[in-house]
Automatic annotation (TrEMBL):
Entries under CDD domains matching the protein: ABC_MalK_N
Coiled-coil regions, chain positions: none
InterPro entries (UniProt xref): AAA+_ATPase, ABC_transporter-like_ATP-bd, ABC_transporter-like_CS, ABC_transpr_MalK-like, ABC_transpr_MalK/UgpC-like, Mo/tungstate-bd_C_term_dom, P-loop_NTPase, Transp-assoc_OB_typ2
Gene3D superfamilies, sorted: 2.40.50.100, P-loop containing nucleotide triphosphate hydrolases
Domain ABC transporter intervals: 4-234
UniProt keyword list: ATP-binding, Cell membrane, Membrane, Nucleotide-binding, Translocase, Transport
Gene Ontology molecular function terms on file: ATP binding
Keyword ATP-binding: yes
The name this protein goes by in its record: ABC transporter ATP-binding protein
Protein source organism: Gordoniibacillus kamchatkensis
């Protein structure tokens, strides 16, 4: 097992600075998710950990040791990508065994390891099959098993589920959480999907434009986002934000924390508006409410209103957020 540290790391491609003076400690044995919009630098960070791309300056430490001069194969790191490489002509067993054979692990030990790992990922009944006869999820498991069998101290996964359909993705998320529990290894997982990040992470590292916006457990980012970016990245639909009209200060509230009623209630923040859209999703309904100055999304557990209806939107004061002109959340007493 191993922690990972970035110390004043900068990465440029030619003159283009992608990561600027980044400091980050990824804890040993934790499930850490790097999340952020496309192009924010997630894959670049992973490649620096793996040793596939050297940092321009600063140091990368694995298990407390500077690995800047350590070759990728010697770092104790395994990586699983979105487009995972499994060999189509080899059976599942041969695919899993491949790295072990290369490392000259004796036959008996190989067999034992392949059997134990394939049971961990639920492939024990498929060992003699060829990849073409497997489902997408099973193929993904072969890729995971291939990485696992080498007993890495760090697992790097870059959008490993994005080629799977929605249902399988949800199932594989649960399986990965289970695998992490069983292995107790450091997992670093990249996604641009905040739902995936929220459901899997012990710690989320939220990035934008090569910089860390917030590093915290999912519930902290949800309840105490450090800035407007974090507030609007985590949560579906995103947090509603509006201008207070005072020196660039903004207010915000989550769609699930607003209450709609026909008449004003005793909520502190309230505004009149018209329902412009209604999306019934089964257990909840999402309304878009237009007031004189803003448009807000509201998530309700009951479906009581119709389009064009006039409503009063209320939010309790403790559910309101405020952000300064610099975008940072303003702490309240
Ligand atoms: P995505 O979610 O789309 O995969 P990402 O957050 O993983 O995005 P990176 O792949 O790390 O983003 O890319 C970060 C930035 O670095 C982007 O602006 C990208 O264009 C740039 N970049 C990445 N690799 C290279 C390269 N080999 N040469 C030049 N620029 C690169």
């Amino acid at each position: 097992m191993a922690s990972i540290e970035f110390v004043h790391v900068t990465k440029s491609f030619d003159k283009h600075v992608v990561i600027k003076d980044l400091n980050l400690k990824i804890e040993d044995g934790k499930f850490t998710v790097l999340v952020g919009p496309s192009g924010c630098g997630k894959t670049t960070l992973m490649r620096m950990i793996a040793g596939l791309d050297p940092q321009t300056s600063g140091s990368v430490l694995i298990g407390g040791k500077d690995v800047s001069r350590v070759a990728p194969g010697q770092r104790g790191v395994a990586m699983v990508f979105q487009n995972y490489a499994i060999y189509p002509t080899m059976s599942v067993r041969e695919n899993i065994e491949f790295g072990l054979k290369n490392n000259k692990v004796p036959k008996e030990e190989r067999t034992r390891l392949v059997e134990s790992i394939s049971a961990t990922v639920g492939l024990q009944d498929y060992l003699d099959r060829k990849p073409a006869t497997l489902s997408g999820g099973q193929r993904q498991r072969v890729a995971l098993a291939r990485a696992m069998v080498k007993k890495p101290s760090v697992f790097l996964m870059d959008e490993p589920l994005s080629n799977l359909d929605a249902k399988l993705r949800v199932q594989m998320r649960v399986e990965l959480i289970e695998m992490h529990k069983k292995l107790g290894t450091t997992f670093v997982y990249v996604t641009h999907d905040q739902v995936e990040a929220m459901s899997m992470a012990d710690t989320i590292v939220l990035m934008n434009q090569g910089q860390i916006q917030q590093e915290a457990p999912p519930e902290t980012i949800y309840h105490l986002p450090s800035n407007l970016f974090a507030a609007q990245f985590i949560g579906v639909p995103p947090m509603n934000v509006g201008d207070l009209g005072e020196d660039g200060v903004k207010f915000g509230f989550r769609p699930e924390n607003a209450v709609l009623s026909a008449e004003p209630g005793d909520n502190h923040f309230s505004v009149r508006g018209i329902i412009v859209t209604r999306e019934m999703l089964g257990s909840e309904t999402i309304y878009q409410v237009r007031s004189a100055r803003h448009s807000f999304m509201v998530k309700c557990t009951e479906d009581l209103f119709t389009v064009d209806q006039e409503v009063c939107l209320g939010v309790k004061p403790d559910k309101m957020f405020f952000f300064g002109a610099d975008g940072k959340r303003i702490e309240r007493d």
